[in-house]
What we know:
Elements: H1 3-11, E1 29-33, E2 39-43, E3 49-55, E4 65-70, E5 75-78, E6 88-94, E7 102-106, E8 119-120, E9 130-132, E10 137-140, H2 148-157, E11 161-164, H3 168-173, E12 185-188, H4 196-208, H5 213-227, H6 230-240, E13 248-251, H7 258-270, H8 274-282, H9 288-298, H10 313-316, H11 320-334, H12 337-343, H13 349-359, E14 360-362
Parallel strand pairs: 10-13, 11-12, 11-13
Antiparallel strand pairs: 1-2, 2-5, 3-4, 3-6, 6-7, 8-10, 9-14
Helix pairs in contact: 5-11, 7-8
Amino acid sequence: MSPLNFFASATKPTPKTPQSFILPLVEPVTVTRSDDNFIHFQWQEVAERTVIFAGSNPYKFAEMAPVITVGSAREALVAGLNTAVRHYFRLEFRGGAWDGRSLLVAERVLPMQKGVNLRDAGGYYTKDGQMVRWGLLYRSGSLSRLTQGDLAYLQRLGVQLVCDLRTMDERQKQPDRLPDVPGLVERPLPMESVDRWERLRGAFTVFFRKGRIDDFLLKGYKRVMIDGNAHVIGEIFQRLADPDQLPALIHCTAGKDRTGLVVALLLLTLGVPEETVLADYTLSNLFYAHFRKAIAADLKQVAPWGVSVDDLQDLFLVKAKTLQGALDHLRQTYGSLDNYLRNQAGVSDETIAKLRQNWLIDNS
């Protein structure tokens, strides 16, 4: 190897994995599902005895049944639960630093066969120690390929409102498949730029200025989503403040950018710390392989231009700096999130108060 080649190979940076962009979520208890459908619980403090209860309704504790008891441990595995049903769990700690404490938890990433990026936005703690209710807001990517099993799963969640942030063109190409739920409202709320030249500049950046994709995405968050679609954000907030329209599901195509911003603004409004909101946002990187596969299929049409799926990695990675830059823009331009919601999005103080009243509980 020549000295020049050795220098080039020695200094070439190691590519980052999608997982490396996921910020750590600091939660009292985490609940994850393995490929063989074991439910894995991990918690922070050792108790003399920890009892885990399971049920299908997060707020009917009396209907939850004990599924496992462990002693002097910080984790447990539970198997044998019906995977077609959404389960919520209550952990009771006896002895130790958490003696007498009871915590309500659930899976954040929900199991789907053909759905992508379906997550529950609940379960997060606010700065003053309250918790965002589980089971009120789900977020996802496209619902166009759901299986009958997926539809049955969503039906059992009881979703009453679906807000679709995709453009008309996206919806026509891949129409939603929705569960048969009485009274379900499907509300198209396209979060897009009305500026044709803006869209053309975006396409030019993606295909010919690949090193500027991060900048292109951030401009989209600022100019298109925050500045240009405040009315969409306002309508969503007003609907989410109405208990009759809950549970709700918000989605776009990937469930990471448009959906990610709306959910982030809601969590911040409820008082969830910004570091938690940023970490939740980056969980979309769990579905990186799906985003990559979807982009690869679309790229067949432009392969003669010399564009490869690897060139566009930044387009389907989810980076905390993008959301952070968008939030900085919002505060610098509008003063604060509350000001933006009131003056740009048309969300009244009463609506914000209803959101906080209906969505937050004491989970002590």
